[in-house]
Specification:
This protein has 6 helices and 11 strands. The chain is an alpha+beta fold. The protein has a 6-stranded antiparallel β-sheet with strand order 2-1-11-10-7-8. About 5% of the residues have low confidence.
Length: about 240
């Protein structure tokens, strides 16, 4: 990995340069290389790690309960879900520069900005997609199902800093789309069941799975910021009819 560009990590007005021989952990525990806030219990003890792989740099989610959120240079945020137990690491390649890693706590949302060293001759060569990245198989979505999913994930689809990693409630979705709440619940639940049947992990519980569902749909880019405009056009057409 001698030809790998250094990684510049910016946080709270400071910066640190990582070489390919180094790694950096971050979270609320004092043992982390970067302790975000030891008093913020909303942050996992060890939330994640930045490290070099055989082909580039990667962000790995080490939390057992909380996702990380990766914002690309265009401002599009994508959740990096918790890895399934006994599964492959939930990991994202640093495939663009800069990338922003958001760690959502109870007191604050902490932002780490990652940049490939512009002074390194390899700095403009982004790593290929990591073969161990989170992946899944997704069924075809009808327009009726897609519209409730887009409404549910609207906060995630807005550009940073308007990015809001919170799934909307069933009632909020119903009010926006002028549907019965029971219809919204039924459509979202059917998508969840289809994904479970397709082998997606983390959606098996009968409890509210909206957050996990948002994270998987966005991590696999089934939904993108362009879907907000799609929903706007669809609703306008419905209003005219």
């Amino acid at each position: 990995m001698s030809g790998l560009a250094d990684l510049i990590v910016e946080y709270d007005g400071t910066s640190r340069v990582l070489t390919s021989a180094e790694a950096l952990t971050f979270g609320r525990d004092a043992s982390c290389d970067l302790c975000l806030d030891s008093a913020d219990l909303g942050v996992s003890r060890i939330a994640g790690r930045l490290s070099a792989t055989g082909s580039g740099w990667a962000v790995t989610n080490l939390s057992r309960k909380r996702p990380l959120h990766i914002v690309d240079p265009a401002g599009f945020g994508v959740p990096l879900p918790v890895a399934p137990e006994h599964g492959s690491p939930s990991r994202r390649s640093v495939d663009a520069s800069p990338l922003t890693v958001l760690v959502v706590g109870e007191a604050w949302t902490y932002a780490l900005v990652l940049r490939l060293d512009p002074g390194d001759p390899t700095g403009d060569i982004f790593a290929p997609i990591d073969e161990n990245r989170t992946r899944t198989q997704l069924p075809q979505l009808t327009d009726r199902r897609r519209e409730v999913l887009v409404a549910m994930t609207a906060g995630y689809l807005r550009p940073y800093p308007y990015y809001d990693p919170r799934p909307r409630t069933y009632q909020e979705i119903a009010d926006e789309l002028r549907l019965a709440k029971s219809t919204v619940v039924k459509r979202i639940e059917q998508v969840r069941l289809d994904l479970v049947e397709a082998g997606v992990l983390g959606l098996e519980k009968e409890l509210d799975a909206r957050r996990a569902l948002c994270e998987w749909l966005l991590a696999t880019r089934v939904l993108t910021p362009g879907d907000l405009e799609w929903l706007k056009v669809r609703r306008a057409a419905q209003d005219r009819s």
